Amino acid sequence: MENIEKNTAVQPEAKAEAPKAPDAVAPKVVKPAVAKPVPAAPTTPAENALDLVELTQDNFRQTIEADYQAGFTFLECLTGMDWGEEGLGVIYNIENPETGARKCYKIKTADRVNPVLPSVCTWYDIANIYEREAYDFYGIKFVGNPDMRRIYLREDWVGYPMRKDDEPEKFNPTRMTNEPLADETSGLMYDEDGVNYHTERSKIFEADDYVVNIGPQHPSTHGVLHFRVKLEGETIRKIDPVLGYIHRGVEKLNEQMTYPQTLALTDRLDYLGAMQNRHALCMCIEKAMGVEVSDRVQVIRTIMDELQRIDSHILFFSCLAQDLGATTAFLYGFRDREKILDIFEETCGGRLILNYNTIGGVMADIHPNFQKRVKEFIPYMRKAIREYYDVFINNVIFRNRAIGVGILSKEDCISYGCTGGTGRASGWHNDVRKRMPYAAYDKVQFNEVVRTEGDSYARTLVRMDEILESLSIIEQLIDNIPEGNYQEKMKPIIKVPAGTYYSAVEGSRGEFGVLLESRGDKSPYRLHYRSTGLPLVAVMDHVCQGHMLADLITIGGTLDYVVPDIDR
Amino acid sequence: MMKKPKIKNIPYEEFKDNETFEQLVAELNQNGTNVIVRTLDELIDWGRSNSLWPLTFATSCCGIEFMATCAARYDIARFGFEITRNSPRQADVILVSGTITTKMAPVLKRLYDQMADPKYVVAVGGCAISGGPFCKSYHVVKGVDQVIPVDVYVPGCPPRPESFLYGMMQLQRKVKAENFFGTTNRKENDPYSLKMDKENEQILNELEEA
């Protein structure tokens, strides 16, 4: 009861005071309860501002080579950019997985008709897919990448939709003809002198290859994903992923939206990480503006993120079981997942799309029942996990299908950028909660679950152990939610100071990053999401080779990708 | 002849506000039907409406809610929808749950074409109805009804499992108002009448020539 009274008392007050906010100038926040000096204009750069080093075409390859040799082997994010008159370009975020040191580079070309930039394919395996994305959206061709095809849009698409001057609707009506899929590709390759380049054609599939299409409508691809699989007997020899069946143009939509509006779309990217995605964007904007949210909000966000992680991992377990034919385990998983959805529903009002985080706080205070129900849930879930092991994970059929299947080495994981449970199952310590602590993660004790086998079974066990770790994080926080505001007062129109910012959270299936470039307007100039699933799909070709066709389902299931997050 | 054929349907008051459905019933009642034929119709519709097999088709968020609806708590099996089919050739109803992009549109049309008659379409969620939050996007079809004909719309983003069930019950009612041996709410073109038309035309032409 006490809590309810407080809720109703706080809300009208907040509403009444909101119109007074316009007297605040520039990015500053009025904090009614906590008496803190308000930063008028941030003189020091924001915490998450990127320190971009501009490279030229001449020194680019030498610099990347030197960095790679120095241990920067993880290409975190590659973002295509359109800087208007300055030309088109790319922002690279690279990281040293051993030391955690990070570097950011940008490179641009003024030529808008035929933009050509050097590729980083030689060093990073994931760059192939990332560069295809930049080519698809901006038309930038990368010298050294042998495969310059579109990745999301149809091959007969006209124009490059993310360019500021492109009008995608004008030339691209809904085409109802079957999609053309070429067996041949081409790319620009360097001549022997390393400066000039020529076009090189190559075959994806030979004329007498036996190619089977899996997807886009297939129950085990977890969405509308399309693999072209080259088979030899029943053995997989090559996989060519075709993406974009759920490409909704979120990044382009963001450029016309105000900041609070952009939040709504993050929930719908990876809908099993709705809380975390939105957390990442809110955090990015807050840090860029220099807004400090209260400890209460930080703790609530942490608890919600962990609940979401448990939700996602239960669904991972259920779907994997369903894909491999264990319907009982599917029902068990969903039975327990409903308990989390109930907790969410009481506080947020939604089951799947939660719309809970806002810039400067959360939408509403936690429900009076929240703590009670979470505390009931923790022991229940611990018991349920044991049941999962009995029903499915220790089952001899599953063990035979998962142990030793789809082994990923640590080096491959880093090179392909497979973060999250997939990377941790291969021994890569990549947890963003430990690498770059945010919210309340520096206040709690938890272990980063890491295994070394790198096979499908290890990936399953990592996620099961992560549920237990998440429960222990929640247990530490649930009784210690500090008092404070659940929402800082923000100006009606939110403007982020000009600059480039990057923030990341540990999503349900890896590092979910937000790269925001602002020019001081009320809408972002460029908002790029580091997809958690794209590297996982990119690695499929590598990890499935030599395995049976049926193993593709196990491997795909344990990699745990969500397609709308890949296609954005 | 039955003067006023009764439509057996779900006996809840809140269901009785559907204009489309009332029109269907009026159309059925217009001329009355044959007693035997209508009885057979009722039998077929009863069986059909209680064993609609959905295609497992999901593009995004709504698909997860569909899975939740199939699972233990909401238990779609109560209505006979639990047999989800992975092949469109075995499915009766396609639940379009999720955004349909322009790249997906021809695929969806093909899936629909592959389904055997009688087939039904339920547009689930804002995206399938109108493009939803993505309707300004360059790569999203603004409503699945631009690609395939839709029987029932279930709003929500994503709809709750209860909405799913309500939408599916509405579809059941629509199936029950169907006239298998006639034309009311009949999905497929009647091949017999087409054939007859052609034959008649031929006879007429022959007569004229003579």
Provide a brief overview of the structure.
Chain A folds into 2 domains: 42-166, NADH:ubiquinone oxidoreductase Nqo5 subunit (Beta Polymerase, domain 2); 250-567, Cytochrome-c3 Hydrogenase, chain B (Orthogonal Bundle). Chain A contains 19 helices and 16 strands.
Annotate the secondary structure layout.
The complex is a heterodimer of chains A (568) and B (210).
Chain A: H1 2-17, E1 52-55, H2 60-69, E2 74-82, E3 88-95, E4 102-109, E5 116-118, H3 127-138, E6 141-143, H4 168-171, E7 184-190, E8 197-203, E9 210-214, E10 226-232, E11 235-242, H5 250-254, H6 259-266, H7 274-289, H8 295-323, H9 327-348, E12 357-358, E13 361-362, H10 370-393, H11 396-402, H12 410-416, H13 420-425, H14 432-435, H15 456-478, E14 499-507, E15 510-518, E16 526-530, H16 534-538, H17 540-544, H18 549-559, H19 563-567
Parallel strand pairs in A: 1-4, 5-6
Antiparallel strand pairs in A: 2-3, 3-4, 7-8, 9-10, 10-11, 12-13, 14-15, 15-16
Helix pairs in contact in A: 6-7, 7-8, 8-9, 8-15, 8-18, 9-10, 10-15, 15-18
Chain B: H1 19-31, H2 35-49, E1 54-55, H3 61-70, E2 93-97, H4 105-114, E3 120-124, H5 125-130, E4 152-154, H6 161-176, H7 191-209
Parallel strand pairs in B: 1-2, 2-3, 3-4
Helix pairs in contact in B: 2-6, 3-6
